[in-house]
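Collaboration report, partner site 2.

Our partner group contributed sequences for two proteins of shared interest, and the home lab folded both. The records are reproduced in the order in which they were received, starting with the first partner submission.
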Amino acid sequence: MAPGRRGNAHAYRFALLGGLSLGYDVALVGGILPTLERTLALSAAARGVVVASAKLGGALGAFVGAALMRSHGRGRSASAMTLACSACGSAATWASAEAGDATGMALGRVALGVGVGGVAVIAPAYCGETSEVGARGSVGACFELSVCAGMALANALTWFSPQKTLGLVLFSPAVLGFWSAIVFAMSVESPRWLFRRGDENGARDALRATGADAATVEEEIGEILAEERALGIGFDGGAGDDAGFWRSFVESTVGGVREAMSGDERRAVRLALAMAVLNQMCASTSVINYGSSVFRRLANDASASNGDMDVYNMYTGVIILCKTVGVAASIAMVDSVGRRPLLLFGSAASGFGLCVACFGYAAKSVGWTLFGLCAFILAFSSSFASVFWVLVSELFSMRAKSSAIALVTATLFASGALSDSIFPSMISTIGAGTFVVYAIVCFASTTFVYLYIPETARKPLKEIQSAMKSGLSGYAEIHASSEHEDRGTRVELAVTRDTNGG
């Protein structure tokens, strides 16, 4: 569809709230970690478990979110998961902190993570289905911008006497979840989901709600219809997204694994799984979770921020600022420069940034360590952090989307949980070598992208997914359709609809 024919405000709004709770949790637990260590008497291993528990919940939430968005739609599912999990998780973590119960704290964070993981599946799927081709990259990258916004908000709450406001800070995710849930519930539903449910009139109404004119509505309905018929789905007895929650949950878990192993889209699933592991195993969130602890260790300050201000959390705030700048740069470039160049440059630059951090940590220099981590986060956030979500929204057809994205997102959170759980022990045992290990992962990511990830910018979703099935390597170009070919395709779709009585 030609850019500018309808609005993308609904997709931007969904994306800008989709990662808010994820970023908020990452920065919040990092900021209050010294206070939790004192309150709960946490060892290094227990500290890793408490931090990683939210991502373990996110791995489960990914499958729950996939099942809900298939059975109940995108907006309502995101709203329900955000509201329920943020309220339950916040109450549990607050009560556990008051009781000094580390196990309860971990379980409460699992509950928070379930909601975060569910929305992390729903938001990219929604954005990929509802945004225009020319804006799909920037809309998808806005998901990562919302992660930054959540991080910045939570980090600011921990600058001043976090030990004196621990209960308020722990309960704050419930407030954030409440307002996010309202916006999700008011969002325009995905026309593709409505179509698959057999509600063609609802799909038309949803498109009109985005500001599409009559011609654009008919054009997109024709494209959806052609895609559904190609998959053997439609109004002639084919199976659409009409399964209930439990059936959808089973299909999301078992179906995702089956698709990865032997399905038509196994190549796309496997590439996305590898991207998910590389995304988290370079310590992309661990350096924010544990940033203040790293700087406190360098400064040989064992206090739990008993003063009026926690300067170490402010250092982490600088890292978050760099992440925000990087994501903003990615939004500006992802559709014009392309996905591959950003991934290649960003992953390589991320590795060099971690090498600088290694030097700073070995030299006991807070300044050089902070500079290296800022360089790492700036490069990573302008590439892997945001482009990953863009690719996830593009690689899979509607047939495999819910199960594939669930598996990929669960892998992302599981990898993040592993990185978060081992980071404290690595810092304690090998010190500066920790950053070398993660730098090697970044350089491996560069090689992986060069060999296997194709360019998808400005390509129709159908073309991208066909290229994935054909097995094109990263250095093999997906040929862009010319405007003439694009117009011809639209005419052909229209003729097909008329011929079939659509």
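Second partner submission, folded after the first:
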Amino acid sequence: MKLRLLAIGKDRSGLYAPAVAEYGTRLARYVKFELVELPEAKKHAGTPRAKDEEGATLLAKVDPRERVVVLDERGKEYTSVELARRVEGWLQGGRDVALLIGGSDGLAPEVLARADEKLALSRLTLAHRLARLVLVEQLYRAFTILRGEPYHK
């Protein structure tokens, strides 16, 4: 299985990118992992058009055979152990998985419609770059749980 994280925007602050890269490297020990950063619709930021443009950009990068999991505040929340079981289900399903994080304007209706499932990291609103870090860390944690490794205490 290949696991891809498709995310709108880059971490220009430099705060999160090193940690995302570290957990991405750790995650790659268990699964083929790729982070794909896509451009923000800067010209139309804050308008419905931005969300639509970013949505089209995301969907253009999704393989039709991939299971699509979107991060959405209305998605299902899991504990770390429950997420590990969900990841195990993805592994058993045999399809590659694309996890999608939209830009600051959220996800376009077309992206939500394409989703096979919706995942919420928290009921709190997280900065999108922070959400990316939390997701990659939790995916790494999920694999350590599935392998019975001591990372998850």
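Feedback sent to the partner group on the second submission included the following. Residues 128-147 form the longest helix (20 residues). The chain has five helices and five strands.
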